[in-house]
Design a protein that fits this description.
- With 225 residues, this protein is mainly alpha-helical.
- Among the domains are: 61 residues, Arc Repressor Mutant, subunit A (Orthogonal Bundle), CATH 1.10.10; 93 residues, no CATH class.
- The protein is built from nine helices and three strands; from the N terminus they run αβααββαααααα.
- The protein has a three-stranded antiparallel β-sheet with strand order 1-3-2.
- Helix 5 runs parallel beside helix 7.
- The termini are far apart.
- The C terminus is likely disordered.
- This is Helix-turn-helix domain-containing protein.
- It comes from Ideonella oryzae.
Length: 225
């Protein structure tokens, strides 16, 4: 109760709280608060002056002399800060290594975020896929390299469709290596045997340029009769 009264008090120990406020802050019933206030008055630690506060409230005065204390003193002047010790360690000039030994080193990648994300997302390499026995790997890798040089890398879906197309040309009597060589020499984005490419060139001259220039040709949208 004295601690709560001290919160309300001025430097001389005077305060004017209501009994309801004291009981609420002490977390007790008003009846118990009145009992404690009377006990503090009987011990001489508190003096209650009836109706001497603002608007006729009671004035509570903590008897500091009975508590062996004196009125609050004025604020002490600020002390000067002690000089820095000469033995103080020099601040660290470098960042410490992470505590976990398994933590990764900071990334040194200087690429733009969009470029790095695109390359990370397209981790497919068409030159490393499993090929059927009838398809020479040298010819296939040459075709993959040609597409990369023209900035048209082969996706996984396109690779499956082109191998399927090569198998169809093989059934028609065309060598897969010859089909690839013909397509590289002509600069096609799709795979076409010499005879089919000749007919496609004629159609392109008539205005049907979708046959040779669009990736959907070798991804399965072009159906052969």
């Amino acid at each position: 109760m004295l601690v709560v009264l001290a919160d309300y008090s001025d430097d001389e120990g005077n305060s004017y709280p209501s009994v309801a406020s004291l009981s609420r802050k002490c977390r007790m019933q008003p009846r118990n608060a009145n009992y404690i206030l009377n006990a503090l008055q009987a011990s001489g630690e508190l003096r209650v002056l009836k109706n001497e506060g603002p608007r006729g409230t009671n004035r509570y005065r903590i008897m500091l002399s009975q508590l062996g204390a004196s009125p609050l003193q004025g604020s002490a002047p600020l002390q000067r800060s002690a000089p820095l010790q000469r033995s103080a360690p020099t601040p660290a000039m470098e960042c410490a290594k992470p505590l976990q030994p398994i933590a990764d080193e900071p990334s040194l990648n200087r690429q733009e975020p969009s470029v790095a994300r695109k390359r990370a997302a397209s981790g497919f390499d068409a030159s490393l896929i499993d090929l059927p026995e009838w398809l020479p790997r040298e010819s296939w890798q040459a075709w993959v390299a040609d597409r990369k040089e023209r900035r048209k890398p082969i996706t996984q879906r396109a690779a499956d469709a082109q191998i399927k197309a090569l198998d169809g040309y093989r059934a028609e009597g065309h060598l897969p290596a010859a089909v690839i060589a013909n397509s590289i020499a002509a600069g096609y984005q799709g795979l076409f045997p010499p005879k089919l490419a000749e007919g496609a060139r004629t159609q392109r001259q008539r205005g049907g340029n979708d046959l040779l220039d669009c990736d959907h040709v070798f991804e399965g949208s072009h159906e052969r009769a």
